Amino acid sequence: MATNSYVTRPVVSPDQTRYAIVAYLTGKEPPLQAWTLVAGDCLHNLRCALDHLVYAIAVHQSGANPPPDEKKLQFPIADSHTHFQNSISRIASLSPSVQAAIEAVQPYNRSHPKLPPPLAVLRDLENIDKHRFLRLAYTGIGDIDVELGGVPNPLAGQPTQIAHDGEIKDGTEVVAFLFSAPNPGMKFVKAQMDLMISLWHGKKNPTDHPWHERNEAHTVLKFLADEVRAVVATVSAAA
Predict the structure, then answer these.
(1) What are phi and psi of 114, to 5 degrees?
(2) For residues 14 and 211, what is the distance between their CA atoms, to the nearest angstrom?
(3) Which of 79, 144, 155, 188 could join 193 in a cystine, given CB atoms 3.0 to 4.6 angstroms apart?
(4) Which sequence spans correspond to the domains of the chain?
(5) What's phi and psi for 194, nearest 5 deg?
(6) Res 141: pLDDT
(7) How far apart, in Å, are the Cα atoms of 142 and each of 64, 145, 164, 215?
(8) Cα–Cα distance measured from residue 121 to residue 116, given in angstroms and rounded to the nearest whole number
(9) Distances (CA, A) of 84 to 68, 103, 112, 125
(10) Is the model more confident about 235 or about 144?
(11) Region 209-227: what's the mean pLDDT?
């Protein structure tokens, strides 16, 4: 990110009806595939930490290493109480208090105000990473502050603003203002925005805007790591 591989510049159409901000690649293409592998490894380690937690508690409570049911042990992540009950065999040998603590942190009991439940995000991303690359890309707009100014043509009317909500490539039009007639007296008086490396994590609700299905990659990974720490602390305390 520090190399500033992309810059944004204003572009005006020849007929002066479209004022746009376009992203251009000025340095090397970011190594997104390599970063994707690193992100996938982080997710796998976080998911495995929960399974290690269950195994360690089983050793502690059974007094045996390996514990009697070592091949069944796994930290369940379920989207409903019914699904959790279907997975209870994974932790059947653990004490009732530990089972209750594990259920208490399940996605259906531990939601998030803006994102899907954290453990559900972790499970789904780790499952994706087993079969294909995660969706990690130079994309979106972290913060945007764009303003047109000048002497407008009254015949042009108010502009229609169009924002790009997909991945950013060389030459991508990030945002544009479209007028119904030529408007030569306009110019960008402010055009500040931050492109970011995003990780797709899914929407909280199906009706959410497409922008709501992704966030800055480092933020997502830190968010999931913090959640795993909280889960480990909660479940460990019950042991």
Answers:
(1) -120, -30
(2) 31
(3) 144
(4) 6-30+136-198, 32-62+69-135+215-238
(5) -115, 120
(6) 65
(7) 51, 10, 13, 9
(8) 7
(9) 22, 7, 19, 19
(10) 235
(11) 88
Token duo for residue 235? 């479940």
Enter the tokens of residue 224: 């999931």
Is-contact 217 199, C-beta < 8 A? yes
Q: Are 10 and 24 in contact (CB under 8 A)?
A: no
DSSP string, 114-154: SSS-HHHHHHHHHHHHHHS---EEEES-SSEEEEEEE---G
pLDDT, mean of residues 84-107:
97
* Whole-structure pTM value: 0.82
Beta-sheet strands, E only, within the chain: 6-12, 18-25, 136-139, 144-150, 160-163, 173-178, 186-193, 196-200, 214-216
**pLDDT tens-digit series, residues 105-130:** 999 999 888 889 999 999 999 998 88
Question: Three-state secondary structure along 200-228?
Answer: ECCCCCCCCCHHHHEEEHHHHHHHHHHHH
